[in-house]
Input
Amino acid sequence: MLDGNCVFCRIIKGEIPAAVVYEDDKMCVFKDLEPKAKVHLLAVPKSHFKLLSEAGEEDAEILKYMLTKIPGIAAANGCENGYRLIINQGDDAGQTVFHLHIHILGGQPLGDL
Ligand code: 5GP
Ligand code: ZN
Output
């Protein structure tokens, strides 16, 4: 279920433009508006849940699906040499968008980034 007030739900619905690099019935991957690396993508499930800590057993399938798809999507988008996945969970991590998302960072040596 999508949330009309959520920026990532609105991107999924096509109400807010985004540079989408991959989409299917379960997930959407688009370029981060403020990239922190040469390649910075956000992978989001096409169902709204706010936090990793809110994911239940019923969400295990979509998380597994996303992690299975990401290597191919990353490789097809300039991360052939490797990449880093990040999920910011909650305030201490600086989470700003409360629709679960996986950052895909790469396209360059990342060092301590
Ligand atoms: P968080 O800190 O919540 O893990 O990351 C949210 C990310 O979403 C940030 O890197 C931010 O640049 C990105 N972001 C926020 N609003 C938009 C938007 O409207 N479009 C896109 N493409 N990225 C966004
Ligand atoms: Zn949402």
